[in-house]
Design brief:
six-stranded mixed beta sheet; Rossmann fold; 8 helices; 263 residues; alpha/beta; binds glutamine; four-stranded mixed beta sheet; 31% helix
C-alpha cells in the first residue's frame, strides 16, 4: 500500500516545527512498509495536484506569511482543498492553517485575511500589545467520531499534549470543538475549547509537533487515509511506542496531571 501526503506551503507555514507531523506520518507508515510520498502544495503547485493526495498537513505561520498564503490559496486551488476536505480526506491543520480554513483571520496589524469558509469559525488577534497564548497545552479529545475511534484503539479517553504559540483567538460558531482544555488557553483562553473537527480534518492550536507526542492521532490519520483510498477496513500493525509513553508520562508529571496518565 502507499499514501501521498500533501504538505501545505512548507516554506511559508513551518515556523513552529509542524514539519514534525509530516516526518511522524512518514515514519509510522514506513515502519509498516506503507510507501509514502510527500508532495508540497505551494505557490508553484497547480490545483490539480491537490486531487492526488491522501492526507493533508498544514502548519503554523506568522501573520505576514498567512497573508501571502491566502493571496495564493484562492480560485481553483481553494476549491480543490475545500473539495478534498468535504470529501473526507483526512488532515491535520495547526494554528495558522485552521485560522485560514475558517471565515476570516484578523491579524495583529493590517487588513482582515479572508479564509476558505470551510470551518464555521473566525479568528481575531487582539492586537500587537496583547499577550500571546504560549505554553504547554493539554486537552481531552471530545470530537465525535474521532474520540470514540481513538478510544477504541487506546481503550481509554484520549488526552492530547501539545505546545501552543498564537496571538490569534479562535471562536467556533457551529464548528465542533476538537477537545476540552485541561491546561493552557486552547482556542481563546475563555471558552475552554481547543481546536475544531470537521469530516476527517483535525484543526488544533497544538504544535509540539502534535503527532509525535500523540501517535494515536497519527495512526488515526493513516488508518483513515488508507480506508478512504482502498475502500476497505484496515487494521494497522501495532508499533512499539514505549518511548513516547515514557515521554508523555514525564510531561504529565511535569504538568502535575499524572491522574490523566491513562496512555
Ligand atoms: N500568526 C497566527 C497567530 O499568531 C498563527 C500563529 C501560529 O501558527 N503558531 O495566531
Amino acid at each position: 500500500m502507499e499514501l501521498k501526503i500533501g504538505w501545505l506551503y512548507p516554506n511559508l507555514m513551518s515556523t513552529y516545527g509542524d514539519r514534525g507531523n509530516v516526518i511522524c506520518l512518514s515514519r509510522r507508515c514506513g515502519w509498516r512498509e506503507i510507501e509514502v510520498t510527500t508532495i508540497p502544495l505551494d505557490r508553484e503547485t497547480e490545483a490539480e495536484a491537490f486531487n492526488h493526495v491522501d492526507i493533508i498537513v498544514g502548519g503554523g505561520a506568522q501573520d505576514r506569511q498567512q497573508e501571502i498564503v491566502m493571496r495564493d490559496l484562492k480560485g481553483a486551488k481553494a476549491d480543490a482543498l475545500r473539495h478534498k476536505i468535504e470529501a473526507g480526506t483526512p488532515g491535520v491543520f495547526t494554528c495558522g492553517s485552521p485560522q485560514l480554513l475558517g471565515h476570516y483571520y484578523e491579524p495583529a496589524l493590517g487588513q482582515r485575511i479572508e479564509g476558505l469558509g470551510l470551518l464555521d469559525l473566525v479568528s481575531k488577534h487582539p492586537g500587537p500589545d496583547a499577550p500571546r497564548c504560549i505554553g504547554n497545552v493539554v486537552f481531552e479529545l471530545t470530537a465525535s467520531p474521532l474520540a470514540e475511534e481513538v478510544k477504541s484503539i487506546l481503550g481509554t479517553n484520549p488526552v492530547v499534549i501539545g505546545f501552543e504559540n498564537h496571538g490569534g483567538r479562535t471562536y467556533l460558531n457551529t464548528a465542533q470543538p476538537l477537545g476540552k482544555v485541561i491546561i493552557g488557553s486552547g482556542n481563546n483562553g475563555e471558552d475552554g475549547m481547543e481546536g475544531a473537527f470537521y469530516h476527517h480534518a483535525i484543526a488544533t492550536y497544538s504544535h509540539g509537533p502534535l503527532l509525535p507526542k500523540n501517535p494515536f492521532l497519527a495512526d488515526w490519520l493513516i488508518k483513515t487515509a488508507l480506508q478512504q483510498k482502498y475502500q476497505r477496513s484496515i487494521s494497522l500493525t501495532k508499533l512499539d511506542d514505549s518511548l513516547v509513553v515514557a515521554a508523555r508520562a514525564a510531561m504529565f508529571k511535569r504538568l502535575n496531571v499524572t491522574n490523566l496518565l491513562k496512555y
